[in-house]
Design goal:
Number of domains: 1
Structural class: mainly beta
CATH topology: Immunoglobulin-like
Strand content: over 45%
Shape: globular
Helix content: 10-25%
CATH class: Mainly Beta
CATH architecture: Sandwich
Length: 129
């Protein structure tokens, strides 16, 4: 039975469906050198953040409401910001129904402008269940 469940899960993942949550990886590379790599996994009310590596030694995260557009009209500050050292993991439970986030190796404050692809920051759009 376990093999059958694993097979169904594998087939669903190939089809782009993850019944056990969503995982997103952000990687910034410059001349073959990884500057930042982060993985975020969202399952039901649990979001797991993994700062795999950062050239500065830390990953900086900013979480915004999902309805905050990535333009100058959105002045909402992040509802949660935190940093963590390279190689560490952090779990957050009870997040609101949807959020978007930015992750950076820089310690400068993040505004919703980081959600814009041309901001120079790494941004992910994540919908938490």
């Amino acid at each position: 039975m376990h093999k059958f469940i694993a097979l169904i899960s594998l087939l669903l993942s190939f089809a782009g469906c993850d019944p056990f949550g969503q995982s997103f990886t952000t990687r910034a590379v410059d001349n073959g050198r990884t500057l930042l790599e982060s993985k975020v996994t969202v399952r039901e009310q649990l979001a797991s953040f993994h700062c795999i590596t950062s050239s500065s030694g830390e990953c900086h995260y900013a979480l915004f409401k999902r309805d905050c557009p990535a333009d100058a009209a959105c002045q909402d500050p992040p509802f949660h910001q935190f940093e963590m050292p390279s190689g560490s993991k952090h779990d957050i439970t009870g997040l609101q129904a949807g959020f978007v986030l930015c992750v950076s190796g820089e310690s400068t404050p993040m505004t919703s402008s980081c959600l814009h692809p041309r901001s120079g920051r790494n941004a992910l759009a994540i919908a938490a269940n």
